[in-house]
Amino acid sequence: MILGMNHFTVIAEDPQATMDFYTGMVGLKEGFRPDLGFPGAWLYGEDTKHAILHVYFDRPVPAQRAGVIDHMAFTAKGLREVKARFDAAGWKYDLRRQAGALWQLFCHDPNGAKVELDFDKAEEP
Q: Keyword Repeat, does the record have it (predicted)?
């Protein structure tokens, strides 16, 4: 029986740019990662017990970057602050409001992975 999504994994073409994006722009936090015998990072949200994004630093990016996965989505908060970080960095994004529902900020990470950040409908940009 499936209990939920465990994590996503991103192959970092540029490890520093990838970490800057996910920690500085998106707001994840680097945390515990066991010695797996290869370089990488585990990133956490508010729940510091379960990493939600794993990053590989030692693998080539595949020619078909996205493969069959369209995007990864994160539940987020602080829309105004996140939008301000993206604006200050000149990072391209598409902010949409679902009819009567949540805000969605879509962008691409430095490796080409599509990322969705979902914010409560009560937040204002």
A: no
Residue holding tokens 């939008």? 83
Total count of domains within the chain: 1
pTM value is 0.89
The two tokens of residue 109 are 């990470």
CA neighbor of 34 nearest in space, from 20, 54, 5: 54
Give me the CATH number covering residue 52: 3.10.180.10
The DSSP annotation for 56-99 comes to ESSSPPPSSSSTT---EEEE---HHHHHHHHHHHT---EEEE-T
Q: Give me the domain span that covers residue 30.
A: 8-62+70-119
